[in-house]
Write a structure and sequence with these properties.
The complex is a heterodimer of chains A (about 90) and B (about 375). Chain A is of the alpha+beta class and about 90 residues long. Chain A contains 2 helices and 7 strands. The longest helix of chain A has 11 residues, at about 25-35. The radius of gyration of chain A is 12 Å and the shape is globular. Chain A starts with a strand and ends in a 5-residue tail after the last strand. With about 375 residues, chain B is an all-beta fold. In chain B, the strands form 8 sheets. Chain B has a 4-stranded antiparallel beta sheet with strand order 3-2-1-30, with no helix packed on it. Chain B is globular. The chains are: A alpha+beta (about 90), B mainly beta (about 375). The interface between A and B is medium-sized, with 18 and 16 residues.
Chain lengths: ~90, ~375
């Protein structure tokens, strides 16, 4: 099953967050699964229009996802997904 | 012995000062490292509401019913299903202001946001819904009437509920102007007669004004004040018309912050800045301007404030007056207060990060 790794920055808000596995599908479905495991996390990652937040990046096999709007990028059984915060100053 | 609590929303957290007999007796810090973009203290029940503007994770809304001992997370207002423009989905950019409904409607809350939506809750924040009458107002879809100023989108930063009638509400929008409803938000009417929009070809336009901050005198609710982009304005007829009460000498005119006296409609305080291009204190001297005659005359009440080499700007929600305490914070992280309406200022801190918003609370 695809594995999901998280930036450690999210642990401040979700202390029990750990590397996890999810069913194959698209990124939107992956995020919905994470929401069911960690209620509230979805709105840390996407805005109220369902678009990936500007300063959040998701990588599949080390590549940035292409579709930040519909979250349609596919993930396969052997894929590793990384959910990271973008670098931004201040 | 008077005990005040001063809640300070900064770019790096919420700092709460407890002031007893003019001395700081306790300081607490919450949400360390996270920008606090809105504070609202509900006078009906003492609840503290705080909006956090996470750089990465978006807006979040928290509340505490025990003055910060514990915090709960509330659902944020959502634009899901609404479009900012045809074909362009709307999304929440920032929560700017929260306001209680009347004392006869204890579960009612109003929330002003960017990109221009007003939200309403009748279950005390368990859910919020967009006020469609305002969202669908024909002027909102006109880029020359509703537009962002300093931001990409217009935002509602002021909500004033008439204490005589909970259906009667004024809002301030940058930029669009002042709007009024008399039926609880079913219909909205622009109330900008007498204002100046010097940055538009038609400076007396109905809609397209930039009220930086709007306040209503609670004891005489037909009197409203606003610090506007183009001066200081007052209304004595429930916003049917506005009078320019900027200083006749050219000071004060420009600025963001405003405080008024809830019982005396002739008293007001502003923190003047030098023009919209430089946004620095006039003469690099941090001064508070005060009027006690409805804006006919203004004078400086600035003893104790830095007089030279000062670049501090006070943002629209960073000046607060309540229960004989007046306080303000600056974009340079300085915090001042006065217990005699500005006769003498005390420095509370020179070491905060930029101050966005202040609120006062009574210690439980």
């Amino acid at each position: 099953m695809p594995r999901v790794k998280f930036t450690s920055a999210l642990k401040r808000f979700f202390p029990n967050l750990t590397e996890t596995t999810v069913p194959s599908g698209n990124i939107g479905e992956v995020l919905q699964k994470l929401e069911s495991d960690y209620p509230g996390i979805l709105h840390y990652l996407v805005d109220d229009a369902g678009v990936l937040r500007k300063h959040v990046n998701i990588f599949i096999r080390g590549e940035l996802i292409k579709d930040r709007q519909e979250l349609s990028d596919r993930v396969s059984e052997q894929d590793e997904i990384m959910i990271m915060q973008a670098l931004s100053g201040g | 012995m008077a005990v005040h609590q001063l809640l300070v929303g900064t770019s790096k957290g919420l700092v709460v000062y407890e002031l007893t007999d003019r001395q700081v007796t306790a300081v607490q810090v919450f949400f360390t490292g996270i920008p606090v973009s809105m504070i609202f203290v509900d006078e009906r029940n003492g609840t503290w509401w705080v909006s956090l503007a996470h750089r990465h994770w978006g807006e979040k809304l928290h509340y505490s019913t025990d003055q910060g001992k514990t915090w709960e997370v509330a659902d944020i207002p959502s634009y899901r299903g609404y479009e900012y423009r045809p074909g362009k989905p709307a999304s929440l950019r920032k929560i700017w202001v929260m306001q209680q409904g009347g004392t006869d409607r204890l579960n009612e809350l109003w929330v002003g946001t960017e990109p221009g939506g007003l939200f309403y809750s009748d279950d005390y924040g368990k859910s919020f819904r967009l006020n469609e009458a305002l969202w669908n107002h024909p002027s909102r879809l006109d880029d020359q009437q509703w537009f962002g100023t300093g931001k990409d989108y217009p935002f509602i930063h002021s909500i004033q509920v008439d204490p005589r009638d909970s259906n009667h509400i004024y809002i301030g929008i940058s930029s669009a102007g002042v709007f009024e409803t008399t039926d609880g938000g079913h219909h909205w009417i622009p109330r900008n007669r007498g204002l100046i929009a010097a940055y538009l070809p038609n400076e007396t336009t109905d809609v397209g004004h930039d009220p930086h901050h709007l306040l209503l005198c609670r004891q005489q609710p037909d009197v409203l004040w606003q610090q506007n982009h183009c001066g200081i304005f007052k209304s004595i007829d429930g916003a049917q018309s506005w009078i320019n009460v900027s200083g006749q000498s050219g000071w004060p005119v420009y600025g963001f912050a405003l405080a008024i006296d809830d019982s005396d409609p002739n008293r007001a305080w502003v923190v003047p800045a030098e023009s919209d291009l430089s946004r620095i204190p006039a003469g690099l001297s941090l001064q508070v301007a005060y009027t006690r005659d409805g804006g006919t005359t203004w004078h400086s009440v600035s003893q104790g404030l830095p007089e030279r080499h000062c670049f501090d700007l006070v943002l629209r929600q960073a000046l607060e007056r309540k229960n004989n305490l007046i306080a303000f914070g600056t974009n340079n992280g300085n915090l001042y207060c006065s217990f005699d309406d500005g006769g003498d200022w005390i420095t509370l801190s020179n070491n905060l990060s930029p101050v966005f918003v202040l609120a006062c609370s009574k210690k439980a």
